[in-house]
Design brief:
Blueprint lengths: L1 H30 L50 H11 L7 E3 L15 E7 L3 H17 L2 E4 L2 E2 L11 H4 L2 H7 L6 E2 L11 E4 L7 H8 L8 E4 L13 H14 L4 H15 L5 E4 L4 H7 L7 H13 L10 H6 L7 H11 L7 E3 L7 H11 L3 E2 L1 H4 L2 H4 L6 H13 L3 E4 L4 H12 L10 H13 L6 H10 L19 H6 L13 E4 L8 E2 L2
Parallel strand pairs: 2-3, 2-4, 2-7, 3-5, 6-7, 8-9, 8-11, 9-10
Antiparallel strand pairs: 1-12, 12-13
Helix pairs in contact: 1-2, 3-7, 5-7, 8-16, 9-10, 12-13, 12-19
Length: about 525
């Protein structure tokens, strides 16, 4: 009798273990949604995804590994039980989106563009993502002042020295046609105005609608052409009419698409990363220009620190020259080093064979600076590793186009982790929020460097204790829905605007609404 009971208990235990494993496996598979080449997202979202063009690129359904890669992918993750599967699933699981969906359609009172008062020329300044935000703001400004927008001129004099024109980076025809009901956009200034007197104006930073309607629009009485000398941060983040905010989102996420050849290559890179399973896109902003600009020299040699200081001193448009590197790092103003990023990923619990895409230019210090991260996560990929020299040749020596490829792979990643909150990190975070609040870590660098310094000094060991602290700090910093942050209390003047969360970092509540019911076609409301 006792043997029969024991046999029954053993059978029941096996059944329970099998059931738990099955449930866990289903949960894991349910979160591994591939956005390229196919998508499980309802059709409602199609216009907000990165567009999928039909091009003659190589299909990776039959050839999963790029032919020029000498190394095979690492073995699959070895998961032995239900608990391990559940824990692994949590690493990739996106935060709840709380039924927020894009809502960028104009209000019933929104009209077609009014009669144009003149032409707005725009010099978009900065790197790729700074220019993208500025261009979208200038679309809104053109609407406010009743201007015809001439296709913006991209920055060719910045640190990156990129000679690309607008049509080299963006889909010019798509940009013009998508905005037809909002702003008239033309490719070139009419010939009869080529020699006309132009008002060159530095628009005031973070300006509201009154500034543009009164001070700028009044210039049409004297000029037919106004040239915006800079485009970055010229429009307020908040307190603008809702239709203007929605226009900014339509410009950014619908109209301003990358050029077809960039989209095609970006899609190909995503498919190649996806062939290895879910992946992390790591924006490792440990490049010479960022370190020179920020004055961050932790872990560098004196020779390297001097080189960065000279670059900063000789770059005319970088205003701050004297920087205390130790203070910068303590305040969380420095990008994490590659070694610190490896410690962070390990503390979160990502296994060593996790595919990691490095979205960055040339890492300062090269392979030696990447050695620790490489030893922890050997499967580090980049566009240079995923694509052949011949495939990347059209983009080489064009920093904006190379950055656009990183942008696409980052937006489409399962997890996005930026080591620094620069322009690309903010742009990708905002785009991922817009597309359904995909898992995006916002690092608390100030807290992290304190922990890492304790590890370096021997006061804290890597392991469960460090892991628990890192996980707890970032529990609510994974891209879940929330309203855009306003200015820091007590700040005044320009510092008040500077302390606000930028519009394109978080387009909620202006461009994201909660569904009222499960019906995808139901009306949308803000709650």
């Amino acid at each position: 009798m006792q043997k029969r009971r024991l046999r029954t208990l053993v059978i029941l235990r096996k059944l329970l273990v099998c059931a738990a494993c099955s449930i866990a496996l289903v949960a894991l598979l349910s979160i591994n949604v591939h956005l390229f080449p196919s998508s499980k997202v309802p059709k409602f979202f199609d216009s907000y995804k990165l567009p999928a063009h039909e091009f003659g690129y190589q299909s990776w359904t039959t050839e999963l590994v790029p032919p020029h890669l000498s190394k095979s992918p690492l073995p699959s993750h070895k998961l032995y039980g239900a608990s391990e599967i559940l824990e692994y699933g949590k690493l990739w699981k996106p935060p709840p989106n709380r039924d927020f969906v894009p809502c960028v359609e104009p209000s019933p009172n929104y009209t077609s563009p009014a009669e144009s008062q003149g032409y707005l020329l725009v010099h978009a300044n900065g790197g790729l993502n700074q220019m993208r935000a500025g261009i979208c703001d200038m679309v809104a400004v053109a609407r406010i002042i009743n201007a015809t927008l001439v296709i913006p001129e991209l920055d060719k004099r910045s640190f990156w020295q990129d000679s690309s024109n607008f049509s080299d980076v963006f889909d010019e025809e798509k940009f013009i046609s998508s905005l037809a009901n909002d702003v008239k956009v033309i490719k070139k200034l009419p010939k009869d105005l080529a020699t006309a007197t132009r008002a060159v104006k530095h628009f005031r930073s973070w300006s509201g609608i009154d500034y543009y309607q009164e001070e700028i629009a009044s210039m049409w009485t004297d000029y037919q052409v106004i040239r915006a000398a800079k485009s970055d941060s010229r429009l307020a983040n908040n307190n603008l009419p809702l239709d203007i905010q929605k226009l900014r989102c339509r410009a950014c996420y619908e109209a301003l698409r990358f050029a077809p050849h960039i989209e095609a290559m970006g899609k190909l890179l995503v498919e190649r990363m996806r062939s290895y399973g879910p992946y992390i896109a790591l924006h490792l902003r440990y490049e010479k220009d960022m370190l020179a600009f920020s004055g961050c020299t932790h872990g560098l040699t004196p020779v390297e620190a001097d080189e960065l200081r000279e670059i900063r001193e000789n770059t005319e448009y970088w205003k701050v020259k004297e920087i205390d590197a130790t203070e910068q790092r303590a305040k969380g103003y420095c990008p994490l080093t590659p070694k610190e990023v490896g410690m962070f990923l390990n503390a979160l619990g990502f296994p060593s064979n996790t595919p990691v895409y490095i979205a960055a230019g040339e890492i300062y210090g090269g392979d030696s600076r990447m050695a620790d991260l490489q030893s922890r996560y050997p499967f580090l990929m980049s566009k240079e590793k995923l694509a052949s020299v011949e495939e990347l040749e059209p983009f080489t020596n064009h920093a904006s186009q190379m950055a656009a490829l990183d942008y696409i792979v980052s937006v489409e990643s399962d997890v996005f982790i930026p080591s620094y909150s620069g322009n690309m990190a903010r742009a990708v975070e905002g785009h991922r929020r817009f597309l359904g609040h995909r898992k995006t870590f916002s690092l608390d660098r100030k807290a992290l460097v304190r922990l890492f310094d304790k590890v370096e000094s021997g006061l804290l060991k890597e392991g469960k204790n460090l892991s628990n602290r890192v996980i707890e700090i970032h529990k609510r910093r994974q891209g879940s829905p929330r309203k855009r942050k306003g200015p820091i209390s007590g700040t005044k003047g320009m510092d008040r605007f500077r302390s606000e969360e930028a519009f394109y970092v978080n387009p909620l509540p202006d461009c994201l609404c909660r569904k009222e019911s499960p019906d995808i076609n139901s009306s949308l409301v803000i709650r």
